[in-house]
Amino acid sequence: MADKAVTIRTRKFMTNRLLSRKQFIIDVLHPGRANVSKAELKEKLSSLYEVKDPNAIFVFKFRTHFGGGKSTGFGLIYDSVESAKKYEPKYRLIRKFKCICDSRVASISLREDGEGNMFFANATDAATEKLWSKKVRGVKKTKAGDAAKKK
């Protein structure tokens, strides 16, 4: 499925120096495919715009047009990961770096090991993430409830 051709076009491209980023609208043409994964889009955008760190790329708000074959969304390329952490909303950082922040913490405090993996810098964030990951949401609730009843 990933072997089908995908064309990426950007429009309304602008460099936002105040927020240290480039922002644009992405048009993705994907005939014969349901959609294109965000990871694949980030990979193509990083090669297209010669981005050193793919963690500085954020793509979101994608909508597939009626009839399929075309999707439109937004893209942001930050100058560095630090500026992304400074200006991006917390919910997008949580999605990107798979972390949950305590509401008492003013900013997300993450540290990076030498291999590019992100970790929590303090115990409060790590404990909150552990509690939130145990919480069952969505369709899994019925399955989790059935398993508890059988015991």
TrEMBL record:
Give the superkingdom in one word.
Eukaryota
* Keywords noted in UniProt: Ribonucleoprotein, Ribosomal protein
List the Pfam families hit by this protein, alphabetically.
Ribosomal_S24e
**Which Gene Ontology terms of cellular component type are present?**
ribonucleoprotein complex; ribosome
Concerning InterPro entries, the annotation shows:
eRP_eS24_sf (IPR053709), Ribosomal_eS24 (IPR001976), Ribosomal_eS24_CS (IPR018098), Ribosomal_uL23/eL15/eS24_sf (IPR012678)
Gene Ontology molecular function terms on file: mRNA binding; structural constituent of ribosome
Q: PANTHER family of this UniProt entry?
A: 40S RIBOSOMAL PROTEIN S24
Which family is it part of?
Belongs to the eukaryotic ribosomal protein eS24 family.
Q: This protein is called what?
A: 40S ribosomal protein S24
Q: Name one GO biological process term.
A: translation
